[in-house]
Amino acid sequence: MRATEDKGYDGVAKLLHWTIVILVVAQFAIAWSMPDIHRGIEPVGLIAWHLSVGMAILAVMLVRAGWRLTHPAPTPPISLSSAMQAVSRATHSALYALLVALPLLGWANASARGWRVTLFGVIPLPPLSAAGSPLGMTLGDVHQTVAIVLLVAIGLHVLGAVYHLVIVKDRTVQRML
Ligand code: HEM
Ligand code: HEM
To answer: Model's pTM, two decimal places?
Structure first.
């Protein structure tokens, strides 16, 4: 066994990974419980929570991407073929891209609905589209579709983790614990 095989992600990368997992699970639970969003509805209650948690995800993902760009991932487990390494890298890149794009799409749609978007409920953010903008309204549908694509990517990622844990029985999952 190579010494590098057991070298996992650093503490900050682990903290950011599991913070995002908690926020994303909460965000889907909120999205599926909040009232149907239609013209004229006010962004209160669970809808306000959806906007706040979504913007927190964007903020944490930007910090995380910055951390990752300056702190490379540890060497991949030697049990992974180069094809599987490529699949794993592509899934990870897709997760980063989706978790930045999805909040931006939601933000643009919220702006089109005339809603003010803030960071952590205190820092006011500029609108990403004009109130009533037809493009901004359409981006709401794109947001919903991209959320499903994110779910599929997360499903693949978690299947990969379970495969390593139960079938390959290597230390891949331990790298993020
Ligand atoms: C990773 C973060 C996010 C996830 C996973 C997510 C997920 C979702 C999902 C699944 C829906 C559909 C809910 C349904 O079935 O009715 C939805 C709708 C919506 N989300 Fe998000 N969302 C995120 C971030 C945001 C952000 C940051 C905002 C705004 C600041 C936002 C604003 C909205 C709006 C306005 C809708 C309604 C869209 C429409 O029906 O036209 N979301 N979101
Ligand atoms: C919302 C759910 C999740 C998201 C969005 C997510 C996202 C990510 C991303 C973007 C990476 C790449 C890290 C990097 O190289 O910078 C990663 C790595 C990893 N994740 Fe997740 N993850 C989720 C859930 C999980 C769960 C539930 C598990 C365990 C069962 C898990 C285990 C891992 C492991 C072990 C790695 C490192 C893989 C390696 O060694 O290359 N993740 N995750």
So the answer is: 0.95
